[in-house]
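Table S5 (text form). Sequence records supplied for joint modeling of the two-component complex.
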Amino acid sequence: MTRVLSPVAGQVVGLAGVPDPVFAQAMVGPGTAVDPERAPGQAIAPVTGTIVKLHPHAFVVVDDEGHGVLVHLGVDTVQLKGEGFELLAAEGDAVEAGQPVVGWNPAAIEAGGRSPVCAVVALDAPADALSDVKESGAVEKGAELYTWR
Amino acid sequence: MSQRNVKIEAKVGLHARPAALFVQIAAKADFDVTVAKPGGEPVNAKSILAVLGLDARHGEEVVIRAEGEGAEELLDKLEALLKQPEPESA
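The corresponding structure-token record, covering 239 residues in total, follows.
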């Protein structure tokens, strides 16, 4: 079982709260999303595992059960080509849950006309594999968002 | 074994929406479907984790392979998707 932690502090809005239908319709996978605090911060690894893919605006950590979690920082942020993001780890690194992976400033993303909402997606998971999915309310960085059987 | 080499026209590459649609189409097949970079290790085209990990960019070529009843039709659909600059739906 994998406990998936919030990579950022903020308000949980659920995947339906992501202003991008690819995430909102769970096309990428089930999960939830967090509208982050508008302050410079560091997005952390949601699980302990290996960073198999690291882009400035998104990363995937796979744990020892083979569960891959995608953290996508903001909507359409691929267009920023890394501007405003600082990589704090490297692709292939082993990371502990809670370890900082990407530094960013959600307020700056928003000021640029994009949503900073952060999707946290369970890749290749059937929807019924997730339980205790948090869909609303405040969340601290590192608090549990859902569990993945 | 059916095989296609396809240049990715999707502007964001095989990520986000194109990747999600690609996996949705592949997952409908009851046979194995793989995608690879030319000369690279094929990965499971039905796995979003594997496809995102492949990290195929706009303008790059990928090799898609399938074997089974309806493989050509499936590859037609995948090829058509990869050739759209901004795919809307599968």
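Note: Chain B has one domain: 2-82.
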